[in-house]
């Protein structure tokens, strides 16, 4: 047999090494709408793993709105926003998204992106270009997720910006570094809700620090938008934040139930991103039908139904925190729908996920590099479509599995 050419051989060897380290990722195919029950490879599973926090992904009104949008506007945009792809529905959506943050960001304007990844890349790299090369500093929370990390790395490479990491739970290091930073542009970047731990960034303290040291504060509220705040407007509403220095990023494929993301900030910053945000300039615009469906989603989020869904979600979170007790596994103190359970080793996390699967539950194991080494976990997430009975059954199953781990059945 002909040996593989060099690059193919390298790929095969390194994939095999990932397999040995229990770090190889694998796809699983679903055959049903996103909901609390999923058909996965011809089996029905109870799903506690999606980011559909409000249970809107399969909402009949959103389905109807998407179909209506497709009937009216077709299924594609045809070009980037700056060529011919910017539709009236995109404009209406951006105006509505800006209104969500208008009480918190003066002169707010929003810009719609097809993904949160692109929104972070565009915002971070674009804002750093406000300064000359080597005249910008980026302060990034250590546990920020991948799209922020990649945006920071790209901005550092392109603009030679300095990068300083900080612990969002201990802000002394951040303050000390900013105190001695003489660069004209300083950008603090943080998740709003940290996606793997479920805790919330100390946004009030960070705003105060940004004010004190003349910095911008970029908050990626991917897991807070739609969930936090009385009206679901996110972390700024939750903590009654008002600041002209905030660059707010929200995701529309999680609690909003559809897809896409947006950046909201003072109008001059948004106008600058239209000029300099390469992922925005050179990406084909999202189909108008998606924007049409999102307008319905935003309406539901602000409505009494949205408030009812958030109440249900908070009841589940409170019940879990009060009733879920482990002997060895570590439950995180989280007031969000993200409720991780730390098992430590990759082997135990994979084995626990496998046993959960056998018992009819879909909760994947999360391993490095997504989380730090030694902190492999089950990332449990709640949806407003989960019932209290669903949660009670899950608690019973998890306690049973932990007992099996303790007697060595998963070792």
Please provide a written account of the structure.
There is one protein chain. With about 400 residues, the chain is α/β, with parallel strands linked by helices. The chain has two domains: about 25-55 and about 305-405, Aspartate Aminotransferase, domain 1; about 60-300, Aspartate Aminotransferase, domain 2. About 45% of the residues lie in helices and about 15% in strands. The chain has 15 helices and 14 strands. The strands form three sheets. A seven-stranded mixed beta sheet has the order 3-9-8-7-6-4-5, sandwiched between helices. The protein has a four-stranded antiparallel beta sheet with strand order 10-11-14-13. Helix 4 (about 90-100) packs parallel to helix 12. The longest helix has 20 residues, at about 305-325. It is globular. The model has no long low-confidence stretch (mean pLDDT about 95).
Topology diagram in text:
Elements: H1 6-20, E1 37-40, E2 43-47, H2 60-73, H3 81-85, H4 88-101, E3 108-113, H5 116-128, E4 136-141, H6 146-159, E5 162-166, H7 172-179, E6 185-191, H8 203-212, E7 216-220, H9 235-238, E8 246-251, E9 261-266, H10 267-276, H11 278-281, H12 288-302, H13 304-323, E10 330-331, E11 338-344, H14 346-358, E12 361-362, E13 365-366, E14 376-381, H15 388-406
Class by alpha and beta content: alpha/beta
Task: Report the strand count.
Answer: 14
CATH architecture grouping of the largest domain: 3-Layer(aba) Sandwich
Strand order across the largest sheet:
3-9-8-7-6-4-5
Fraction of residues in β-strands: 15-25%
Q: Summarize the amount of helix as a percent range.
A: 40-55%
Query: What distance lies between the first and last C-alpha atoms, to the nearest angstrom?
Result: 39 Å
CATH C-level category of the largest domain? Alpha Beta
Largest sheet: 7 strands, mixed
């Amino acid at each position: 047999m002909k040996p593989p050419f060099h690059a193919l051989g390298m790929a095969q060897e390194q994939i095999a090494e990932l397999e040995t380290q229990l770090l190889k990722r694998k796809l699983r195919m679903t055959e049903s709408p996103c909901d609390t029950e999923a058909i996965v490879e011809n089996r029905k599973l109870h799903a506690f793993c999606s980011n559909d926090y409000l249970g809107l992904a399969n909402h009949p009104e959103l389905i109807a709105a998407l179909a209506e949008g497709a009937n009216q506007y077709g299924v594609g945009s045809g070009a980037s926003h700056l060529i011919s792809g910017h539709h009236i529905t995109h404009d209406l959506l951006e105006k509505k998204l800006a209104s969500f943050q208008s009480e918190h960001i003066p002169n707010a304007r929003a810009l719609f992106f097809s993904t949160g990844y692109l929104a972070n890349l565009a915002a971070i790299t674009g804002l750093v270009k406000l300064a000359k090369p080597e005249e910008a500093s980026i302060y990034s929370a250590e546990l920020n997720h991948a799209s922020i990390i990649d945006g920071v790395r790209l901005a550092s490479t392109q603009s030679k910006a300095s990068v300083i990491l900080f612990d969002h739970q201990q802000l002394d290091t951040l303050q000390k570094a900013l105190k001695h930073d003489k660069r004209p542009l300083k950008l603090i970047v943080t998740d709003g809700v940290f996606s793997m731990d479920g805790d919330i960034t100390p946004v009030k303290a960070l705003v105060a620090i940004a004010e004190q040291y003349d910095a911008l504060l970029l908050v990626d509220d991917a897991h807070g938008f739609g969930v936090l705040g009385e009206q679901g407007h996110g972390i700024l509403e939750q903590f009654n934040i008002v600041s002209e220095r905030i660059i707010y990023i929200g995701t529309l494929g999680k609690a909003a139930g559809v897809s896409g993301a947006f950046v909201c900030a003072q109008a001059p910053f948004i106008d600058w991103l239209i000029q300099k945000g390469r992922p925005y300039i050179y990406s084909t615009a999202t189909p108008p039908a998606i924007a049409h469906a999102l307008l319905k989603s935003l309406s539901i989020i602000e409505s009494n139904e949205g408030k009812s869904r958030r109440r249900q979600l908070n009841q589940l979170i409170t019940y879990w925190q009060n009733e879920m007790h482990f002997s060895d596994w570590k439950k995180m103190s989280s007031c969000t729908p993200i409720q991780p359970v730390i098992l430590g080793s990759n082997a135990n996390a994979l084995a626990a996920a496998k046993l959960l699967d056998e018992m009819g539950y879909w909760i994947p194991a999360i391993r490095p590099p997504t989380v730090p080494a030694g902190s492999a976990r089950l990332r449990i997430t709640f949806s407003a479509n989960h019932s209290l009975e669903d949660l009670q059954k899950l608690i019973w199953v998890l306690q049973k599995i932990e007992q099996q781990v303790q007697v060595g059945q998963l070792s």
